[in-house]
């Protein structure tokens, strides 16, 4: 049986929505309260006008070329607004995290709009306790609140000096999937809302992640979300309704389960890149694999192409078993941080090991730090991301404090389907590459972080599994059973 949250808009648990600060949470709560109080026609009309003024006018995306990190050849910066929607267990949370990391590595500013239904329901509202009239009004105010929250992020995007990607965790039209057609039309007419503006002009692209209940039933699970309890049949129904709500949008992409999960995430990112006009080369192709190289004697910064530097901190956590690995990552620039929880699970039904990434709030991150595994050092890095020869690279420069084995360590990573001379020709010539260390357990971050001596510890991982890799910020499927 579905929960009250599922009946409303199938929201994810609070632990998995996009991170917001305490101040932002207060702002959201205030915004919700104001929206709940909105009643008269003047307020409704102002909402419509505000919505129209901030809705993008979709048009065919030009074939823009990336000329420096986060920039395109167009003179105007880009503000690209997408909606991630879909049925239960479709990969929406992981997809949001991987899109965020991918575009941040290109120098874009990324905003993550939280799921409004979850924000409101966290205030103690039980949808099942509401009368029919109250439920209708609550749904109406939910949409008003969603519009106001989204508009706040849209304005931030418009004022940003950088290219900006705005990821909405569901959009306005998702509400129509959980209300009858008659009531929806009544609500639209009563608020003078235009379906074309609400659906077609408000967002640049809609990406529907098909539920695992439809085509990947072996992987459907309700364990990861406290608010999820749908059976397979109900999940399929909700998935269909969510997709139907967006039919008609000029840029509506369905990401199905015709491939494994990691390839599904690749197709998600590739779809956005194609619409934006970013040339991603071959690094999202199914044949791409993760490659790792040892680098010595870094050249001056002036010899690099345009790049983005990030401070990165990794903490390994105590896990539920020897085959499960969990860690926290704090990643930021100029003291502005994003937080990710990563859990690696054993392979299922012949697929490569699955990585589940979840965006965290600062508070959640601090709480999870209490579960640090004392058998591991904290890993500190400077991560440099750059494009050269249409190939994306990530350079990890290990920093102190840490184990002496990490002193001066620099590792270069990329994903490619190229081999031989073709691969050699696309490598950065300005770097002193000592050797390839792909699959070498001596260069696994898991092993590098171990406090015990490798010759005596039982935790050292010696098993390399050449699992299929995916693009940076997308999956990080490990080449090692417990490695990075």
General description of the model:
Residues 40-68 are annotated as: Disordered. Residues 81-263 form the NadR/Ttd14 AAA domain. Residues 41-56 have a biased composition (Polar residues). GO terms for molecular function: GTP binding; phosphatidic acid binding; phosphatidylinositol binding. With 484 residues, this protein is α+β, with helices and mostly antiparallel strands. It folds into 2 domains: 4-276, 3-Layer(aba) Sandwich (Rossmann fold); 289-448, Beta Barrel (Hypothetical Protein Pfu-838710-001), CATH 2.40.320.10. The chain is 31% helix and 23% strand. α2 crosses α6 (132-159) and α3 (41-54) runs parallel beside α6 (132-159).
Strand content: 15-25%
Helix content: 25-40%
Which CATH-level-2 architecture of the largest domain?
3-Layer(aba) Sandwich
Low-confidence stretches: 1-74, 225-229, 464-484
Number of strands: 16
Number of helices: 13
Number of domains: 2
What is the subunit organization of this protein?
single chain
**Could you give the order of the helices and strands?**
HHHEEEHEHHEHHEHEHEEEEEHEEEHEH
Give the class-level CATH name of the largest domain: Alpha Beta
Radius of gyration: 23 Å
Q: Choose one word for the global shape.
A: globular
Question: What is the terminal-to-terminal distance?
Answer: 39 Å
Protein name: TRPL translocation defect protein 14 isoform X7
Biased composition (Polar residues): 41-56
Domain NadR/Ttd14 AAA: 81-263
Region (Disordered): 40-68
């Amino acid at each position: 049986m579905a929960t009250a949250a599922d009946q409303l808009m199938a929201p994810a648990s609070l632990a998995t929505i996009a991170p917001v600060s305490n101040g932002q949470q207060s702002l959201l709560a205030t915004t919700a309260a104001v929206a709940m109080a909105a009643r008269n026609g003047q307020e409704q009309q102002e909402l419509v006008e505000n919505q129209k003024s901030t809705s993008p006018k979709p048009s065919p995306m030009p074939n823009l070329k990336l000329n420096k990190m986060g920039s395109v050849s167009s003179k105007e910066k880009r503000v690209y607004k997408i909606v991630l929607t879909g049925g239960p267990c479709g990969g929406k949370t992981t997809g949001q995290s991987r899109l965020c990391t991918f575009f941040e590595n290109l120098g874009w500013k990324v905003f993550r709009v939280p799921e409004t239904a979850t924000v409101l329901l966290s205030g103690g509202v039980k949808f099942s306790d509401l009368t029919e009239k109250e439920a209708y009004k609550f749904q109406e105010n939910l949409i008003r609140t969603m519009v106001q929250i989204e508009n706040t992020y849209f304005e931030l995007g418009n004022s940003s000096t950088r290219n900006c990607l705005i990821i909405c965790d569901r959009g306005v039209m998702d509400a129509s999937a959980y209300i009858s057609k008659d009531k929806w039309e009544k609500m639209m007419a009563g608020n003078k809302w235009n379906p074309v503006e609400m659906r077609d002009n408000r967002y640049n692209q809609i990406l529907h992640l098909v539920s695992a209940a439809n085509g990947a039933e072996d992987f459907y699970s309700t364990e990861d979300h406290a608010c999820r309890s749908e059976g397979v049949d109900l999940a399929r129904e909700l998935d269909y309704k969510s997709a139907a709500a967006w039919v008609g949008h000029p840029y509506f992409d369905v990401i199905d389960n015709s491939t494994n999960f990691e390839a599904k995430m690749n197709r998600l990112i590739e779809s956005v890149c194609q619409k934006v006009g970013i040339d991603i080369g071959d690094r999202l192709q199914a044949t791409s694999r993760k490659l790792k190289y040892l680098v010595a004697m870094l050249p001056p910064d002036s010899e690099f192409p345009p790049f983005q530097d990030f401070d990165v901190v990794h903490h390994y956590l105590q896990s539920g078993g020897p085959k499960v690995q969990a860690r926290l990552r704090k990643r930021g620039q100029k003291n502005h941080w994003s937080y990710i929880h990563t859990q690696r699970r054993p392979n299922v039904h012949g697929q490569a090991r699955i990585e589940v990434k979840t965006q965290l709030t600062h508070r959640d991150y601090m709480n999870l730090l209490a579960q640090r595994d004392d058998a591991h050092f904290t890993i500190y890095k400077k991560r440099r991301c750059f494009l050269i020869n249409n190939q994306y690279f990530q350079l990890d420069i290990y920093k102190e404090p840490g184990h002496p084995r990490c002193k001066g360590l620099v590792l270069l990573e990329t994903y490619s389907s190229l081999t031989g001379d073709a691969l050699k020709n696309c490598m950065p010539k300005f770097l002193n590459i000592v050797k390839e260390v792909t699959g070498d357990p001596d260069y696994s971050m898991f092993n590098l972080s171990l406090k015990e001596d490798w010759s005596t510890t039982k935790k050292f991982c010696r098993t390399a599994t050449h699992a299929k890799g995916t693009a940076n910020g997308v999956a990080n499927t490990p080449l090692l059973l417990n490695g990075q």
